[in-house]
Amino acid sequence: MSSISSSSHLVIVDFEDIADASKDLTAELERAFGGRLSSSPTSDATSPLGIIAIRNIPNFVEAKNAFLPMAYALAHLKPECHKELEDPKSFYNAGWSHGKEKLGDEPDFAKASYYFNPLTDVPGTQEDRETYPASYPCNKWPNEDNLPQLKHFKQYAQKLGKIMHETVSHVAKHIDAMAAKNVVGYRKDLLFDAMQHTEKAKGRLLYYYPIDKDQSKEDNWIGWHNDSGFLTSLAGDLFLDDETGQPLLPDQVDPEAGLYVTNRSGESIHVKIPDDCLAVQIGECVQILTGGVVVATPHCVRGPRAGFGRSDVKVARISCPCFIDSKPSFPLTLPDGCTSDNACQAGVGRDKVPLLEKRWVENGMTFGAFLQKSFEKYYDW
Predict the structure, then answer these.
(1) What is the pLDDT of residues 349-362, one digit of tens each?
(2) Residue 296 CB neighbours (<10 A)
(3) Which of 7, 238, 281, 292 has the fewest CB atoms in 10 Å of its CB?
């Protein structure tokens, strides 16, 4: 696999600047997210990654360090405890999920997920929840009285998730400003309003189990995909010993393990998010709404290869993305003067993910309908 480390050109901005709506961050966003209408020339070495990192977010590092390690205790609960945390009614989009997702013909046992909404335990209206059970599930929290190893789990999850939502809302404001400069008819604060007022936020505490096969495969922990929603915040990752739960030092982990993205030149890039940074990447809905000004970020996760670090250590990984989306009835409509080709052909990594034009099949298609179509295509991919 040919890959490049992103360490030298990952765009990092300060939270103080992101939180200032009057600050012009167009240059920084174009270097991070620029799509078909980007005005900044780039070489392959500086081609936008589709991801931006934010530093100095108040209370973020403390919240991350409190919550992420709890995935180890959660992943190693007894099977009957996991069963109690499952939510079949939401198609396993709340609570515990392991082996329920499928890409292609095989159930995915490489990782387990715990899904939660950090903004509210009961999102939407009763009608919303009945109409969109996968989009508006009620939370299923662990019983902390019976599971002392998960004490404060709900509190820590909500704290981190709310920080991630707030940061995404600030980023959305600047994407709106960037889009308005590049396309005619882009509605003022379109993305910011959707992100700021949404109740559809899905945190996903992920536990990646040690790899025991296909160590050479580029995407053996999570296959190549685009996020089909709006904006995704990433809390970085943590590598640990699966048997002891102890964090591993960098020299104990394969240096090529972790998150990969496809840059705008089509190369696979290993992204190492600094420990003190939260990152934000683009989903396909924002690619549509901006007419390709910014484009979705194809990404995957690679597990460690054999022969790196101590042979007796079974390496696991923890991460926690939070997907911030609009209500399912939100219309995915192009700006005036843009065509579907402008939005769809702007995408990168088109050989790695199902084609956008096969899923977003009508201008104004609702987010909920698009999401369902995307699930169907990914299962057949």
Answers:
(1) 888 888 999 999 99
(2) 28
(3) 7
